[in-house]
């Protein structure tokens, strides 16, 4: 099934580029550079003006099962606060949905259409409620408020929980998160800050390559 394949792909790729910007065209350019650098999972946040246009553009060009590696990527939506937004993004081509918190109606909507939903969680109770609702992956957010040891603490009573930290993940601590048992990691401003400062989007491609290499090294340590 497509849902299972998408979830497996996110785990396989290991790094999700969480992209924000001043315009949807800018985010498309950032996504192109990230994909060229090897990050094949893209999350377009709904804080981007006309974000659905960015999702439509990227989804028309890239596909999670595309035969050409240059156009093989998973395009999703983030910062989803309600089910209406989730539905609009899915119709625009989003392969997965991410929210900053656990929102019942959004989870139900995504489950109805068999689309992966990764809601934000901060507590054991949040995680248990997400599992009860059939959520496959939860987003530990903001990750910089916890640290990698939080995953081991969670997996003590809940080893079945798949956890993706987002917020504060960088090249320095990515290995710690992966070795702690992270399902994948979400990368935000650290991926794009050099490009934002210089208006040179090629910096995103360079940084993406560094993240892909850091992930490989972290996984090879097991």
UniProtKB/TrEMBL annotation:
Q: Which InterPro entries match?
A: Aldlse_KDPG_KHG, Aldolase_TIM
Pfam families from the xrefs? Aldolase
Q: Where are the transmembrane segments?
A: none
Pathway(s) where this gene product acts: Carbohydrate acid metabolism
Q: Which UniProt keywords apply?
A: Carbohydrate metabolism, Lyase
Quick one: signal sequence residues?
A: none
Gene Ontology molecular function, alphabetical? (R,S)-4-hydroxy-2-oxoglutarate aldolase activity; 2-dehydro-3-deoxy-phosphogluconate aldolase activity
Q: Which domain of life is it from?
A: Bacteria
Q: Does the keyword Transmembrane apply?
A: no
Q: Does the keyword Lyase apply?
A: yes
EC code: 4.1.2.14, 4.1.3.16
What family, per the record? Belongs to the KHG/KDPG aldolase family.
- List, alphabetically, the PANTHER family matched: 2-DEHYDRO-3-DEOXY-6-PHOSPHOGALACTONATE ALDOLASE-RELATED, 2-KETO-3-DEOXY-6-PHOSPHOGLUCONATE ALDOLASE
Subunit record text: Homotrimer.
- Quote the protein name from its UniProt record: Bifunctional 4-hydroxy-2-oxoglutarate aldolase/2-dehydro-3-deoxy-phosphogluconate aldolase
